[in-house]
């Protein structure tokens, strides 16, 4: 289901609404928020059997508790503690399954309110969701969300917003309060949003810089420095909604001590129509997404697009496919039988954008021998439901089937995969 992300014009804590507010002094207020999520996953072929496969299941629990202290107009702090635990998987744990106790977020906001707008400087551990979440997103499907040790400055008016930031992702460790900064990666960027009233839309313009000491592509592994420039236009009117985005990347990749230039790109077009007068108010949607692949592994140039920190799950709840060397056609229908229940039916038909590049599993893992045969990857089908009986309570269920293409079955030994997910989330 397509979700258009429209940010509040002001920088705020990325947390559930506070359930309790305590006036400490005339200028100080303390608020609390939190969530508890129980999630079960089952699949009959972990990662399409790319790493041996077999049945895999786990029961996961994630508990988050946050507190926010507002002191006057100029200062606030937010601390969010978390505990994420999971039962052992048949095929071994994933890095984001377990983190027994950790600081999910912990930052200070220094604010400068003026008649022209609000300036904010945020320093500390924080989530940085931006725009469509294609390049800078949360990791809500996993048991441990994504956060950064970063500095972020913003300027916001009721209609416009600009963000600048620099930071490192947090390195997840299984123990208690032992997470640290992942200095092997660095991200910085500038992101601006403004409305375009005649088009009933808003436009995002952005640029990012990304460094990694250990990136892996079909043509090899090594360090990279990659720059991204892009734009997005999104909006809704008269029952229609749209969300279109394009990005270009350049930089340098150094596999095995060599020096390769980076030239990559991506483009996506989302559109939908909601028949609000029909029974169950169906939304008919379509998406075409393309992320470039490498044209020639021996030409001294890397053309594989790297989405850096995309939202997860990306296409379906199984979170399998990475947006790299990919052409994806995604029709969908969303039904709303009641105000609290929605049902989404979707289909993904997928091809490799370049035949010389491989098929990438998330987060960015090229599948061995996937450059052979045809470009067709396969089809994914998903049915998902969401029931929100109260604002603070939500239930989800999803079933996804990945029908692997013949070439990947033959050359990469991949297998069809069934996936089931169910979850319950309580927020306060």
TrEMBL record:
Gene3D superfamilies linked to this entry: 2.40.160.100
Residues annotated as domain Alginate export: 30-412
One Pfam family this sequence matches: Alginate_exp
InterPro entries reported for this sequence: Alginate_export_dom, Alginate_Permeability_Chnl
Transmembrane spans: none
Name of this chain's protein: Alginate export domain-containing protein
Source species: Obesumbacterium proteus ATCC 12841
